Structures are given as structure tokens and as C-alpha cells.
Amino acid sequence: MGQKVHPIGFRLGITSNWKSRWLRKKSFRFFLQEDFEIREWLAKHFPKGTLATAEIERSGDSITVILRTAKPGLIIGRGGTGLEDLKKMLEKIVKKLRLGKRYAEGKWNLKLEVQEIKKPEMDAEIVAQNVASELERRIPFRRVMKSTIERVMQQKGVEGVKIILKGRLDGSEMARNERLGKGKIPAQTLRANLDFGQSEALTTYGVIGVKVWIYKGEIFADAQNQK
């Protein structure tokens, strides 16, 4: 039986970067829980198709949360009020964890940065969330897969896309998986710029898992130029 490797984790340090960028051996497990709680709250707070990833950087006593989003206006809010409220909520989550377990005591500050995704159709995480959102609205899964693949392949620079759905599709009694793709997806090539995203559609028949791969060509030539 083949072993499945996460496409992003497989390429860490080569073509992709870590989503949490910090190292603190003494409080590693506590900071790891902080990152998990922050990401979990953000995933529940924002609707599907809004927030792609939340990258977290730590330097000294400061925490920087970088939000990559396709809809920055929804996060920032009118006059920046949404961003201020979001910052207060994340500070409350971190403060509660630190007071409960008493680690990293002292002054600390949290910063928020918003990065706009100019082409959401080329971001696998956003595409997966959009597919899950359409499935929740009871749109037939084959129509969703075909229209999504056509929309992604129209983007300049995309050479391949693949979508896999798993669950009780269209309310069938037995769960199964359906896959549809176009172009090429070199899963074992380390220099391949392969983006991966996954999401879940909460339907009346149960949870349907969504996985999306988007291949944007090789970056071997760029790496050679940097050297």
C-alpha cells in the first residue's frame, strides 16, 4: 500500500515555507497550542473562501499573525474596526492560555498583517473552500468539480489541477471518492511548484472531504538564478 505524503510538508525548505516560523525549545508545546487555537478560531470565525492561511511569526516577545485572504475588506472592516476587534479577540485567546498554564510571563504584543491574494483561483486552499461551500449549497458535485477545474485552468501559469471528493456524494448510502483532473500533477518532483489545499463540506448527509492540487510549473530555474 502506497504511503501518502503531504505535498506541502514534502517540499518544506525547498519550494514551500513553514506556516509557523519560530523556535523556542523551553515553551515549544505551549506556543504550538497557541498557534493551533489561533488557527482554529480563525477557521470558525470567517466563512469559507475568505481566509486561505494564517502564518505566525515570533520574535522575542512579539507575535505576528499574517492573514492571507482573498477578501481583505471583510477582515479589515470599515475604518479598520474589524481588524481591531480581531486583534483583541486573538489577544484574549493567547492571554487565557498563558494565564492558565503560566508560561512566557511578562509583556508581549500581538500584531496583525493582512496580505491580499490577487488571484484566488490559483490558491488551492481558497479553491478547496469554495468547492466545499458549493457542495453545502447542494449543487451537484460533478458540476462543481468541472466548473472549478475549468476556472482554475484558465489562469495564466497553471499547468494542472486535480480535485478529490470523499464522502456520501449526492446523498448516496455508501461513501465513495470521486476524482477529476486536468493537465499534469508531478507529485514526486521536489522542484514542482505544487499548491495543496483541503476543506470539509458539512452536508445533511455527513461530512464530505475536499482536496485540491494546483500545479504552477517548476521553479528550478529560479532557484538556480538565486544561487
From TrEMBL:
Keyword rRNA-binding: yes
Xref: InterPro entries: KH_dom (IPR004087), KH_dom-like_a/b (IPR015946), KH_dom_type_2 (IPR004044), KH_sf_prok-type (IPR009019), Ribosomal_S3_C_sf (IPR036419), Ribosomal_uS3 (IPR057258), Ribosomal_uS3_bac-typ (IPR005704), Ribosomal_uS3_C (IPR001351)
Keyword Transferase included in the entry's annotation: no
Coiled-coil regions listed in the entry: none
Keywords: Ribonucleoprotein, Ribosomal protein, RNA-binding, rRNA-binding
Domain of life of the source: Bacteria
GO process annotations (BP): translation
CDD domains noted in UniProt: KH-II_30S_S3 (cd02412)
GO CC, alphabetical: cytosolic small ribosomal subunit
Residue span(s) of domain KH type-2: 38-118
PANTHER family reported in the protein's UniProt record: 30S/40S RIBOSOMAL PROTEIN S3, SMALL RIBOSOMAL SUBUNIT PROTEIN US3C
Subunit structure: Part of the 30S ribosomal subunit. Forms a tight complex with proteins S10 and S14.
Family: Belongs to the universal ribosomal protein uS3 family.
HAMAP family linked to this entry: Ribosomal_uS3_B
Protein name (record): Small ribosomal subunit protein uS3
Source organism of this protein record: Candidatus Azambacteria bacterium RIFCSPLOWO2_02_FULL_44_14
Gene label: rpsC
